[in-house]
Amino acid sequence: MAKVCAICNKGSQVGGSYSNRVRATQFNPTGKRRRYPNLQWARKMDGSRIKICTRCLKANKHLEVK
């Protein structure tokens, strides 16, 4: 199973991470970092389970999926 929300297809993103010292000198960047969505198991109305992000879980979108 992929690390993607089953409802909104939210996946991973790559972002840079710089320390405060790097911002001051523009030297020695720490590189890129992959960030994953916060996926949780949720039950649909028919009883099956899907992995969805917490944003969809909070909006109760898993109850609307057929």
Give a verbal description of the structure.
With about 70 residues, the protein is of the alpha+beta class. The chain has one domain. Helix content is about 15%, strand content about 25%. The strands form 2 sheets. Strands 1-2 form a two-stranded antiparallel sheet. Strands 3-4 form a two-stranded antiparallel ribbon. A hairpin with a 5-residue loop joins strand 3 and strand 4. The chain is rod-shaped and about 55 Å long. The two termini are about 20 Å apart. The mean pLDDT is about 85.
Helix content: 10-25%
Structural class, from helix and strand content?
Answer: alpha+beta
> Could you give the order of the helices and strands?
EHEEEH
Distance between the ends: 19 Å
Number of strands: 4
The shape, in one word, is rod-shaped
What's the total helix number? 2
- Rg computed from alpha carbons, rounded to a whole number of angstroms: 17 Å
Q: How confident overall, as mean pLDDT? A: 85
What are the salient characteristics of this protein?
66 residues; alpha+beta; two-stranded antiparallel sheet; single chain; 4 strands
Please describe the topology of this protein:
Layout: E1 13-16, H1 20-25, E2 32-35, E3 39-43, E4 49-53, H2 54-58
Antiparallel strand pairs: 1-2, 3-4
Question: What would a concise description of this structure say?
Answer:
It is built from two helices and four strands, in the order E-H-E-E-E-H. With 66 residues, it is an alpha+beta fold.
